[in-house]
User: Which sequence fits this backbone?
């Protein structure tokens, strides 16, 4: 297990380097002028002022030098300062990362619980009303856009019923109030779960049906083993391996969906920070947001692989080359 884990960790640095390089190239190739955006447009500054600001920000140097300087500072723990407002990028990104981790983590746990429970009951009660109801919910979940459902939830629970806040992380003057924080968290989490749980429910249902049809499960049942042992030793470990694999592979989609929800609900996470930096062409903030998102995705995939290796030792031995 440790050998496999070390092999997976060894590839993380090269992946992060490639992510940062691709993000830098795409960002530089995008249209727009970050210097002019500081004052609202190129017409509001002279050519000399533009050159002076570009020199102070290091934007007049060759692209290779700009990337090398940024990477060197990053390795020394210096994330730079925002072009837009001069704030420390590391502090801003850390604040956004914590908000995104809370939102994504709670949503992923809720999705996993709903998918496992719903898929399990739909699988063992196949072709019944319960199965049709759960499968119908999964289909609706799969077809519902997150931004549309977010607006519907705001209209229903915030505008019409006035039960929950529509945006932000906390109410004015109630930053340390846990109840207020959970109230702000409820609608974004609900939106993410309802729009992402469907495919996972269908996957677990199919896996349950496949395992129920296998010879080893039928043989275990024929031996008269208790239902608890059949479920926890034979059924779920084998049925959840494809689920864990798919959860890891689709983590970028979940993170991308979280970014959209953050924008709709004004949640101060990495996604909202990324969109604001992209609009303003704030290079340091944008690079830090992209790199942090890459770390989240890679870490999630690594955890998923470790979980698969835990559930299925054959996967661990194959991946380690044993």
Assistant:
């Amino acid at each position: 297990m440790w050998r496999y884990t070390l092999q997976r960790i060894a590839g993380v640095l090269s992946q992060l380097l490639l992510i940062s390089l691709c993000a830098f190239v795409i960002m530089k190739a995008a249209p727009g002028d970050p210097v002019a955006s500081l004052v609202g447009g190129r017409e509001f500054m002279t050519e000399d002022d533009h050159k002076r600001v570009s020199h102070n920000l290091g934007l007049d140097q060759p692209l290779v030098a700009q990337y090398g300087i940024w990477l060197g500072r990053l390795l020394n723990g210096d994330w730079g300062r925002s072009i837009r407002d001069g704030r420390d990028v590391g502090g801003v990104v850390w604040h956004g990362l914590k908000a995104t981790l809370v939102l994504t983590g709670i949503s992923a746990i809720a999705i996993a619980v709903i998918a496992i429970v719903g898929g399990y009951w739909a699988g063992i009660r196949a072709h019944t009303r319960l199965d049709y109801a759960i499968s119908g919910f999964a289909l609706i979940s799969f077809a519902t856009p997150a931004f549309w459902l977010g607006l519907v939830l705001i209209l229903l629970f915030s505008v019409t019923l006035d039960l929950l806040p529509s945006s932000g992380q906390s109410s004015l003057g109630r930053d340390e109030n846990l109840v207020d924080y959970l109230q702000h968290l409820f609608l974004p989490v609900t939106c993410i779960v309802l729009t992402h749980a469907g495919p996972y429910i269908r996957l677990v249902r199919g896996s349950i049906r496949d395992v129920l049809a296998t010879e080893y499960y039928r043989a275990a049942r024929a031996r008269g083993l208790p239902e608890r042992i059949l479920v926890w030793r034979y059924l779920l470990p084998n049925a959840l391996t494809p689920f864990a694999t798919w959860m890891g592979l689709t983590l970028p989609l979940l993170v991308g969906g979280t970014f959209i929800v953050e924008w709709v609900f004004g949640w101060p996470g990495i996604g909202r920070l990324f969109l604001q930096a992209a609009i303003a062409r704030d290079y340091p903030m944008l690079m830090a947001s992209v790199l942090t998102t890459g770390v989240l995705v890679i870490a999630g995939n690594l955890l998923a692989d470790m979980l698969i290796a835990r559930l299925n030792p054959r996967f661990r031995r194959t991946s380690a080359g044993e």
Remarks:
- The chain has a mean pLDDT of 85.
- Residues 76 and 199 are 42 Å apart (CA to CA).
